[in-house]
Write a structure and sequence with these properties.
Strands 1, 2, 3, 4, 5 and 6 form a six-stranded mixed sheet that branches. The protein has a four-stranded antiparallel sheet with strand order 9-8-7-30, with no helix packed on it. The chain is mostly beta strands and about 450 residues long.
Length: about 450
């Protein structure tokens, strides 16, 4: 039986890997033009080896299911439809019972608790082939405080094996948490799991903070702070919640920072004498290099994954557009060519696409294009969408959406690069300027 998920991607064959299967091949989601039909799967509550472990067994299975369903590529079969009763991790799977309810994938697990240490064994199965999925049978350990991370790792293993895509559930997002009325908005940095859980506040609300960005190792965050009264770049160690000013000490305004892929340099905007240019900073030595010299505003720089190029926003042509140049500066090539104003470009982790914000005809959009500017595709449209950030696997984009009106507020949303599965990301209050972390180790 052919197991296929057919996604309406409107000629996105170049944006996504060609993921499919032969009729007798392994279970694999197939992404082609057509109508979406998420792959049905079953995930019974994990088996607890002791009464103390039972509280985690059900929770682990629920988070695994939420991750897969939340991707938009999977659909969970209701437990009310189950024929087999799953009571022992080592009992052979009765595949006919799961085929009968059209579960194409089955995920089983066992949870052992020793003190505050959790051990989770799990397996994924191709139901119609009647066999275990390659790479989807593992043992994971962690503390009870980190049980959600274990669940994300289980879901990542299943997702990656079936879709052929990279993992992204075991990741975090740093963002600006916003509270208070629109005319007196309080902003502070916060970090959370990708799904909005485990929120940790990193700064207080005594000064304006903007544009946080993770380091490649995920242990530091760059951001712009107005603590001194004008914008300066700060770097914060998340584990110790310690911060320091990173800007060059010449009193100039600096903002929109981003780490290089090697984590040793930072590219940013610096404004002096009414002109804004791009600079790079060597973190260890403090040495700076000016990268642009145009009499215009250059901002929102982002490195290519190999660190050799920078994509950025510039109004040198009269309106904000997107350009690419060498990471060492020099001549820049404009890649945006459609109607409207373009900004906040971000290079995909895969290296093939650039995400951006576009304003045209009174609407804001999040879009993607090839790095040569071809195949532009708008994924969203609203009163105000801006500031895209990529998931670690380059499959999902998170961004800020501001609602209209005097009580409007900023919220976080995510969307698949096909333009499907648009949904809000849960935060304790309003949120803006999200930045996705690399996959956690």
């Amino acid at each position: 039986m052919r197991h296929a998920l057919v996604a309406a991607l409107c000629s996105l064959s170049l944006l996504l890997p060609n993921v499919g299967q032969a009729q007798d091949g392994p279970l694999r989601i197939e992404i082609t033009d057509g109508v979406i039909e998420p792959l049905p799967f079953a995930v019974p509550d994990f088996i607890a080896t002791s009464p103390a472990a039972s509280q985690y067994a059900e929770q682990l299975a629920r988070v695994v299911s939420q991750d897969l369903v939340g991707s938009g590529l999977f659909r969970e079969v209701s437990k009310e439809a189950y024929i087999s009763q799953y009571t022992d991790f080592n009992t052979p799977v009765k595949f006919p019972d799961w085929r009968a309810i059209n579960a194409q994938a089955l995920i089983t697990g066992e949870v052992t608790l020793s003190g505050n240490q959790l051990t989770v064994r799990f397996r994924g199965y191709d139901v119609f082939a009647g066999k275990q999925l390659d790479g989807a049978g593992l043992q994971l350990t962690g503390t009870t405080d980190g049980w959600r991370r274990i669940a994300h790792k289980v879901a990542d293993a299943i997702y990656s094996q079936i879709t052929g895509e990279g993992k992204y559930f075991d990741s975090r997002v740093v963002f600006v948490s916003e509270s208070g009325p629109k005319n007196n908005r309080q902003k502070r940095l916060a970090v959370m799991d990708y799904d909005g859980e485990n929120v940790q506040y990193l700064t207080n609300s005594s000064s304006i903070v903007l544009a946080p960005r993770f380091s490649p190792s995920g242990d530091r965050v760059l951001y712009t702070s107005y603590e001194s009264g004008f914008p300066q770049i700060h770097v914060l160690d998340i584990g110790r919640v310690q911060q320091r000013v990173l800007s060059a000490g010449n009193g100039a305004m600096s903002f929109a920072p981003r780490f290089a892929p090697d984590g040793r340099r930072v590219v940013y905007s610096q404004s002096e004498g009414g002109n804004t240019d791009l600079y790079s900073l060597d973190i260890a030595s403090g040495a700076t290099q000016r990268l642009t010299t145009s009499p215009s505003i250059e901002t929102a720089p982002s490195y290519s994954p190999d660190g050799s190029q920078i994509v950025f926003e510039s109004d040198r042509s009269g309106t904000p557009q997107i350009y690419i140049m060498s990471a060492n500066g020099g001549a820049a090539k404009r890649i945006s060519s459609g109607k409207g104003r373009y900004g906040t470009p971000v290079w995909s982790p895969r290296g093939d696409l650039v995400a951006f914000t576009k304003q045209n005809a009174g609407r804001f959009h999040i879009g993607v294009m090839r790095t040569d500017g071809s195949e532009e595709r708008l994924l969203t449209a609203s009163f105000l969408d801006e500031g895209p950030t990529w998931s670690p696997n380059g499959r999902v984009i998170m961004f800020t959406r501001e609602t209209q009106g005097p009580t409007g507020r900023a919220l976080l949303y995510s969307v698949d690069i096909s333009g499907r599965n648009l949904k809000p990301v849960r935060t304790p209050a309003g949120g803006s300027d999200p930045a996705w972390s690399p996959l956690q180790e």
